[in-house]
Amino acid sequence: MRSIVRIRNKALGCICKARRGQSMVEFAMVVPLFFLLTFGMIDLGRVYYVQMTLENAMRQAGRFAITGNHLTQGTNVLSRVQSIAQVAQQAAVGLVLNVASIQINGQSSTNATASAGGPGAPVTISMTTQLQLITPLIGRYFGTNGVYTFTVSTTFQNEPFPSSQTS
What we know:
By secondary structure, the chain is an alpha+beta fold. It has one domain (43-165). It has three helices and six strands; from the N terminus they run H-E-E-H-E-E-E-H-E. It has helices spanning 2-65, 80-91, 136-141, and strands spanning 72-73, 76-77, 102-107, 113-114, 122-132, 147-157. The strands form two sheets. Strands 4-3-5-6 form a four-stranded antiparallel beta sheet, covered by helices on one side. It has a two-stranded antiparallel ribbon with strand order 1-2. The longest helix is centred in the N-terminal third of the chain and has 64 residues, at 2-65. The protein is rod-shaped. The model has no long low-confidence stretch (mean pLDDT 83).
């Protein structure tokens, strides 16, 4: 009787070892797909975050731009363009937004080019930033070398403010 039990236990041991090997093979086949999906979702979430943050920063800068106000930095009064760029940078939480990537164009009411426009004139704000994607397969579809470039732009009409504030 004991010999039958030993034979049966040896047979079950072989089956269990075979199943452990099968589990390892299945795991090895499924893990790359799992990581691709996981990091792909993280990348797409990052793309969405950067797009929404950049749009919000542009919106905040535009709202500030149309008022004709200036910011102060210590005892210095910043120009309108510098003030608008600073508002955009402060609103772009979590993004590296260089001053060079913010373009502000406007016209004064006399059609002479002014940096942020005069009272009642349109002002256009454009911002550009880049995001390095972490998933190579998704990076192929979203830009060159896995870097996706975001560009947002909008035009606002300045409120009627005193002409002395256009500088």
